[in-house]
Automatic annotation (TrEMBL), chain A:
InterPro entries: Thiolase-like. It comes from the Bacteria. This is Acetyl-CoA acetyltransferase.
Automatic annotation (TrEMBL), chain B:
This is OB-fold protein. It holds the Pfam family zf-ChsH2. It comes from Streptomyces pseudovenezuelae. Residues 187-218 form the ChsH2 rubredoxin-like zinc ribbon domain. Transmembrane segments: none annotated. Residues 64-127, 223-286 form the ChsH2 C-terminal OB-fold domain. InterPro entries: ChsH2_C, ChsH2_Znr, NA-bd_OB-fold, Thioester_dehydratase-like.
Length: 349, 313
């Protein structure tokens, strides 16, 4: 690798159940301005802009082009969009910076789940021939995975409840989180998953700025250097996979260099408690690693932004000197279908 | 701040999808109550079958019939079925490995309660009465305690094989347009056009979207514009739109309202279509009960000079 690239700024909205009074661009703009303010950069200073979102969430066609108003995209800027979580937009921006075409990049993503029924909306990403016509919602598919883990002896309902409780307790120090403190585990939503095992549904946005080499040191006191980043996908048939494992996460982590030295922190994108069990196993995380100090996706899960939030939260801990080497993970699709792993480091103190 | 506007929005689409040869055989098979898998390069049998080997990416075409009986590999209890799901009474979602297959198929299992389902239980396909060549030709699975069914060794060749499916989808939303557009719509109900000014470049956007696309900052200062404006450019529509009761040909135009820095678009009426021109001065025509102008008509003023609107084309 010829260029060092770092996350130099991160911002997020408060994540809320609804944001009726705001359009997507109105929700997004404050976080765009926040990351520009943190670095002192202006719109015109940004070399590349990349975003992640899905029009299906709010049912608003071409919302990603309207969101560009908030960036100041006219006259035209160098820009791209992925219909994926913002973590994958960050991956594209990282490759753009690697080529040397740009020295700075703005990455953002947003999701407004409140106008629709996100459990049903997410069925539209499934295999359209064999699966989508059955409308299996996102909680049902996660529940099939959770039951497979229980059958395999990898977890049980009390252990899942403990993951939920730890996440929301940790979120008490995260003012942006939607679900904080003591949250009842509740009734079954789709057994074996209870409401407490599932993420809150809400609206939110996140943004980061990436910079290369010396530029990163100019813009940030302690840049979060991306030492490695990789993403991998499972076979698309749910019944082809071993749902209790995540070989794609393990491979991405290996390619990102996660196993070369221990990390002190891991921000895992596990919207369901049971998925943290799978990820801990795949990433070989033991109790010495601080997992999801932000509360993770169980505390705030703005779809399309929750993965970028993990990278942002991990980077912010490095910025603040609370971590020296952190792993950030993002997922997309049913039952951890696709997984991205980034390894971030701060300069020695 | 005025009340937040909301309206129901249904997004509905029938996707017409073509099928590859393996998918075609599998779905046609369901119509004929035949279950087919496909053999991978290493000899595993995938059900439901796919066109390419998930491990090697080789094209795979070797179809093999499997049984209508199988074993649950995992399950989840769905006490509140949602629209479109296979059963409208509480059921278990299941992954089922059919006898003769190495992978599992997702479907519903019809049992009275969660105590009647467990991983490893034996089940059998319940066929839908009307079958068209779709995954829903399997109505669901049901408990089964007999011997495994023996597949007859079907070749996978069918008369009248289907080559495509129509997958209907509907999603329901409660749409809310946000602060800036809500204010615009509220003003329209008083027959006023209210845009917003960029605090940085001072341009006035109408309709406002809440942000200046040049400066990337929020707009908030409300500015009443129009009602008169200038046609900056136009086209002549010759094709009648579905569900639209307007005689063709008619003119659709970009109109720069007086005081606005962005043209909006609307129909031009009250003048023969072939007499509309760039620079024509127009004003809105409201009809009773409507929340936006029906169309714009000439004011009778002298045409605007090109230089006054050339930046708004």
């Amino acid at each position: 690798m010829t260029r060092e690239i770092a996350v130099v700024a991160f911002a997020q909205t408060d994540h809320r159940r609804t944001s009726d009074e705001l359009s997507e661009v109105e929700m997004l703009m404050p976080v765009l301005h926040a990351v520009l303010d943190q670095t002192g950069l202006k719109t015109a200073d940004i070399g590349f802009t990349c975003s992640g979102s899905s029009d299906y969430l709010a049912g608003r066609a071409f919302s990603f082009t309207l969101a560009l108003d908030g960036v100041g995209a006219w006259p035209p800027i160098s820009e791209s969009h992925v219909e994926m979580d913002g973590a994958w937009a960050l991956y594209e921006a990282w490759t753009k910076l690697l080529t040397g075409d740009a020295d700075t990049a703005l990455v953002y993503s947003y999701g407004k789940s409140s106008p629709g029924s996100v459990r049903d909306v997410l069925t539209r990403q499934l295999d359209p021939y064999y699966v989508a016509p059955l409308w299996p919602d996102s909680v049902a598919l996660a529940a099939l995975q959770a039951q497979a883990l229980i059958d395999a002896g990898d977890t049980d309902e009390p252990a899942l409840a403990a993951v939920a409780a730890r996440s929301r307790t940790d979120a008490t120090t995260n003012s942006h989180a939607q679900l904080r403190g003591s949250v009842p585990q509740g009734d079954y939503l789709v057994r074996p998953l209870r409401t407490g095992d599932c993420p809150p549904i809400g609206d939110g946005a996140a943004a980061v700025i990436l910079a290369a080499g010396e530029r990163a040191r100019d813009l940030c006191e302690r840049p979060a250097w991306i030492r490695g980043i990789d993403h991998r996908i499972e076979a698309h048939g749910l019944g082809v996979r071993d749902l209790t494992d995540s070989p794609s996460t393990r491979l991405a982590a290996e390619r990102a260099g996660a196993f070369e030295r221990p990390v002190d922190t891991a921000e895992l994108h596990a919207p369901f408690t049971s998925q943290e069990v799978v990820l801990r196993k795949a990433l070989r995380l033991d109790d010495s690693v601080r997992v999801n100090p932000s509360g993770g996706a169980l505390a705030a899960n703005p779809v399309m932004a929750a993965g970028l939030l993990r990278i942002g939260e991990a980077a912010a801990r490095i910025h603040r000197g609370e971590s020296d080497r952190a792993l950030a993970h993002a997922t997309s699709g049913p039952c951890l279908q696709q997984n991205l792993v980034a390894v971030l480091e701060g300069d020695p103190r | 701040m005025p009340q937040v506007l909301k309206a129901p929005l249904a997004v509905e689409f029938p996707f017409t999808r073509s099928l590859g040869p393996v998918q075609s055989a599998f779905l046609t098979g369901l119509r004929e109550r035949v279950l087919l898998g496909v053999k991978t390069v290493d000899g595993r049998v995938l059900v439901p079958p796919v066109e390419y080997d998930p491990v090697t990416a080789d094209e795979i075409r070797d179809l093999v019939e499997v049984a209508g009986t199988g074993t649950v590999t995992t399950w989840a209890w769905n006490h509140e079925p949602r629209r479109g799901q296979p059963l409208d009474t509480p059921f278990a979602w299941v992954l089922v490995r059919l006898d003769g297959a190495d992978t599992a198929l997702l479907h519903a299992l019809d049992v009275p309660g969660p105590d009647a389902v467990r991983t490893g239980m034996r089940v059998r396909v319940r066929w839908a009465e009307e079958r068209t060549g779709a995954i829903t030709d399997i109505a669901c699975f049901e408990p089964y305690d007999g011997e495994p069914e023996q597949p007859a060794g079907h070749s996978g060749e069918f008369e009248d094989a289907i080559t495509g499916i129509v997958a209907a989808a509907r999603l329901d939303y409660t749409y809310s347009p946000g602060r800036a557009q809500s204010a615009y719509i509220h003003a329209l109900s008083d027959r006023r056009m209210v845009g917003e000014r960029c605090p940085s470049c001072r341009k006035v956007y109408v309709p406002p979207r809440g942000a200046c696309p040049t400066c990337g900052v929020a707009t908030s200062e409300q500015v009443e514009v129009g009602p008169r404006g200038t046609v900056t450019t136009f086209c002549i529509v010759n094709i009648k739109a579905k569900n639209l009761d307007i005689e063709v040909p008619y003119v659709y135009a970009h109109i720069a309202l007086d005081g606005a820095d962005l043209a909006l678009h609307a129909r031009i009426g009250g003048i023969p279509y072939d007499q509309v021109r760039m620079g024509l001065r127009v004003e809105p025509v409201w009809t009773d009960g409507s929340r936006f102008p029906d169309h714009y008509r000439p004011t009778g003023e002298v045409d605007a000079e090109y230089d006054t609107y050339k930046e708004l084309l």
